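Hi V.,

Quick status before I head out on leave. The structure for the redesign project is tokenized and pasted below; the design run finished overnight.
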């Protein structure tokens, strides 16, 4: 940004001071407007954005701190530099805590003001510096997945091979890793891709209706069966049936599912005939089925029948190589859905994303980005945009998580700095004070 593009607004009840500052700032190649009344200045700020506002603290009608609050109500990201002839350390601290980017006591040399303006604009620019994330050309196997990480590449290779055969597949992995998307991708790659893909979450099936939902029911089979009902297996004939959260399937239904898998035939409730079906089954769970077996909540024989091919989708914290492209892809997709161009991603946001441990995996990343993109008032996502939408890990368990994820000391330090920054609403002076370092050290640690 050149100086000629930078727009400043000066407000002071002293008209001579306004004239002087406007003249000096015009000589410094800024675009400047000046006001002596707070209301007129607020109207101007409401109508058009300014890069920085220079405001006196003591004015009749509305004090500078009140004016600054009114400005931030209209434009939360507005830089406000306060000046006053009644300077004190307490007032300076109060001003900065209230959101001022800097505080200068009168009288001051114009060079001092120009330096402060330049420093704060550079600081904002640094925070808004957007990173150009990787293109989408790194996808593995021409798939819809981002897969630069070895673990994801290996899983997709196995999934591609498994798609070519008809064996039953058990997808495992934490919630939010994309098991449903992998199941759909395998169907689309398989010889069954022209047949139906029927997906159902077993946890969402009403307990009393699970059997009729899966296998169908004849009219009169139970009280509310007023007509024949086609089951999901029959609906998926010649295609793929995806049973998500298979661990939630009741013990009463499990042997019937096993029988269908063993015989390739399904019998609807109330029917005395079996019907041959041609369905490929893919099941998924985020729960360890071996533990469910030990707890007598899942049949071992059904587990072995489902677990012919086991594919484990790695959690996002083990796919750090994929993060940049995932953010890029999600940003484009979410922005397109909202009908606006993709936002830029600041370096500080990308650092936070890389340091976070993502217990909710890709689903959590997508949700955080969607909230941030929807609520941001900037063209570039800043850390405070994520702070509105996300929570850093609570202190309890934080170190344990860090150890489990193999964080380095530098990773822990950066996460703690970001945590304090979030708690101070991005106030670097207060953050530095709480961390026991000076501002220059804080900036150096932030990189």
């Amino acid at each position: 940004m050149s100086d000629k593009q930078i727009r400043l607004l000066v407000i002071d009840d002293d008209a001579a001071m306004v004239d002087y500052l406007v003249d000096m700032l015009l000589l410094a190649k800024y675009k400047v407007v000046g006001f002596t009344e707070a209301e007129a200045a607020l109207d101007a700020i409401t109508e058009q954005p300014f890069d920085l506002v220079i405001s006196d603290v003591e004015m009749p009608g509305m004090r500078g701190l009140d004016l600054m609050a009114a400005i931030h109500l209209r434009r939360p990201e507005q830089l406000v530099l306060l000046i006053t002839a009644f300077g004190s350390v307490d007032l300076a601290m109060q001003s900065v805590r209230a959101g001022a980017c800097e505080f200068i006591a009168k009288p001051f040399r114009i060079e001092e003001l120009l330096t402060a303006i330049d420093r704060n604009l550079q600081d904002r620019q640094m925070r808004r510096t957007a990173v150009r994330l990787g293109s989408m050309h790194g996808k593995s196997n021409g798939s819809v997945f981002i897969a630069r990480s070895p673990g994801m590449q290996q899983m997709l290779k196995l999934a591609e091979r498994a798609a070519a055969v008809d064996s039953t597949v058990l997808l495992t992995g934490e919630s939010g890793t994309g098991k449903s998307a992998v199941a759909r991708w395998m169907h689309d790659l398989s010889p069954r891709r022209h047949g139906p893909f029927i997906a159902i979450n077993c946890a969402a099936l009403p307990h009393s209706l699970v059997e009729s939902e899966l296998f169908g029911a004849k009219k009169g089979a139970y009280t509310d069966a007023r007509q024949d009902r086609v089951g999901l297996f029959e609906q998926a004939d010649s295609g793929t049936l995806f049973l998500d959260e298979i661990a939630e399937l009741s013990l009463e239904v499990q042997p019937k599912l096993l029988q269908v898998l063993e015989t390739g035939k399904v019998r609807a409730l109330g029917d005395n005939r079996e019907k041959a079906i041609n369905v490929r089954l893919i099941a998924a769970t985020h729960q360890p089925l071996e533990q469910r077996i030990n707890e007598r909540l899942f049949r071992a024989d059904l587990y072995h029948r489902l677990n012919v091919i086991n594919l484990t989708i790695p959690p996002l914290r083990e796919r750090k190589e994929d993060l940049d492209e995932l953010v890029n892809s999600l940003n484009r997709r979410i922005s397109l859905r909202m009908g606006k161009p993709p936002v830029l991603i600041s370096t500080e946001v990308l650092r936070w994303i890389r340091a976070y441990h993502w217990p909710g995996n890709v689903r959590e990343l997508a949700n955080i980005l969607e909230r941030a993109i929807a609520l941001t008032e900037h063209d570039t996502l800043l850390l405070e945009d994520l702070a509105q939408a996300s929570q850093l890990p609570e202190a309890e368990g934080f170190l344990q998580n860090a150890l489990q994820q193999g964080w380095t000391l530098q990773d822990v330090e950066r996460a703690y700095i970001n945590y304090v920054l979030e708690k101070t609403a991005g106030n670097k002076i207060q953050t530095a004070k709480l961390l026991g370092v000076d501002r220059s050290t804080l900036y150096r640690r932030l990189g």
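Above is the designed sequence. The longest helix spans residues 110-128.

G. will cover questions while I'm gone.

Best,
W.
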